[in-house]
Amino acid sequence: MEAMSRMDWQRLSIDLVDLDCDRLLSDWRWLVPADLRPFSLTIFGDWFFEDERGRVHFLDTIGGQLSMIAPNRAAFLAARQIPENIDQWYMPDLAFLCHTRGLMPGCGQCLGFKIPPILSGLVDVDNVEVCDLMVHESIAGQIHRGVKDLPEGTMINRFVVDGDEA
Fold first, then answer.
1. Over 80: is that where the pLDDT of 136 sits?
2. Which pLDDT does position 21 carry in this prediction?
């Protein structure tokens, strides 16, 4: 939270203007219903949506989970001021460290993990890189879809993304 005073919401978010959100979310449609309307995207590629009743949902692309986090946008904006929520949703301390190391995404980019945490990568600045937003969203969605039914602790020794072994 300390870094939040040095970071603003603009630097923790990606502007959705000119983004093809349907395309970006195509590999998450197994989890994210098409009727959820995106209204915000974090610098780490996590999404905020509103449903038809105005409830706010959060797609955690690191954990591969979609959850309802607020009954409406006003409640979300209030909840966004709580340090634990800021840390969970925006990771401002990590974003600040990335910025101090020159990791600043441009248009069509986000911050992503070189080795995704779901594959035992660390949530650490040394494991973060600037990456293409579409590539990040696609790979994360495919990985999470592929591991969602595996028992916890299952060893993964290879995976395939878009037909290519990685």
1. yes
2. 97
How many alpha carbons lie under 13 Å from residue 40 in its C-beta half-sphere?
19
Average pLDDT over residues 25-30: 98
Looking at the domain assignment, is residue 110 inside a domain? yes
How many residues in the chain?
Answer: 166
User: For the chain, how many structural domains are there in total?
Assistant: 1
Evaluate whether residue 151 is within a structural domain.
no
The H-or-E segment that residue 136 falls in is: helix 133-147
Residue 164 lies in a domain: no
Residue 71 within a domain: yes
Judge whether 105 and 88 are in contact, CB under 8 Å: no
pLDDT tens by residue, 49-75 = 999 999 999 999 999 999 999 999 999
Domain span including residue 43: 2-145
Q: What is the DSSP string of the chain?
A: -GGGGG--HHHHEE--TT--HHHHTGGGTTTS-TTPEEEEEETTS-EEEE-TT--EEEEETTTTEEEEEESSHHHHHHHTTSHHHHHHHH-HHHHHHHHHTT----TTEEEEESS-GGGT--SSGGGEEEEEHHHHHHHHHHHHHHHTTSPTT------EETTEE-
